Structure formats: C-alpha cells, structure tokens
Amino acid sequence: PYFSSVPDLQATENQVPTKTLSGTDNNSASVKKDLDKFTKSLFTAYTTDGDTLKLISKGLSLNKGQEFKSLDQATYESKGDNKYHAVVQVTMKNSLGTHVENYQFTIEKQKQSYFATDFKHTLPEGKKE
Asked: Quick check: is 51 in a domain?
C-alpha cells in the first residue's frame, strides 16, 4: 500500500459561487449606504459580540463559529413607516472554508439608528409566471 497526496480541497475566495440577486430597490444612495453600513455592523456583531447583537436585532443568536468576511449583495425594499425588507448575500468563513449565506430580514429605522427582526436564512421565492 502507498499514499498519494490529496490536493487542497478548500475553496479560495474567487471560487466561492455567488448568486446574483435580481431584486432592485428605489432608495437614494445615502439610504442604501446607511443600510449597507448597518447590515455590515449587524453581521459583524452576529459573529463577534452578543451584547451588541442584542441591541440592534431580535432573532439572531451569537455565532462565534464563523467570521463575517463581506457583504456581497443587498437589496432593501421600502415597506413604508421607515421599514425595509432586506435580502442580502454575505460571505462567511469557518473552519471548513469560505462560503456564501443568504438572509432576509426586516430593518426598521428608530430615531438615528436601525433595528433588525424577522430573520430567514433563505432567498425569497422567485415570481411564478
């Protein structure tokens, strides 16, 4: 018997598949920038700081087994009354490698800050024709 080497099976960042979100939003550039900044802070807290996570969201539990790498795509559909339906794709890293994850949730503006609720770990279903 003999052993042969196995090539590295861990994907590199440019090999991680991404899905293009077809949804668009009609928010101003400044609103989109603010919501992107909040979303990045949300996923950073999701993987590093449970105390901060409790202050900005309800429905997510601290997940120190992963590291937030990037916000790849995001759409924020306005639902009126300072509420937005967010559909996002993020890149995460764990001991098995780098991978993308998709989330849907509601963001509500509260004074000068935002709060996120109603998390789903999926993309929305496509429109049936």
From this structure: yes
Enter the pTM of the model. 0.77
Q: Domains in the chain: how many in total?
A: 1
Q: What is the pLDDT of residues 63-122, one digit of tens each?
A: 999 999 999 999 999 998 899 999 999 999 999 899 999 999 999 999 889 999 999 988
For the stretch 11-37, pLDDT in tens is: 565 655 555 555 566 778 888 999 999
Give me the CATH number covering residue 97: 3.10.450.540
Q: Which domain holds residue 60?
A: 24-120
**Cβ contacts of 84 within 8 Å, gap of 6 or more:** 27, 35, 76, 77, 78, 106, 107, 108
Q: Distance between CA atoms of 35 and 75, rounded to whole angstroms? A: 9
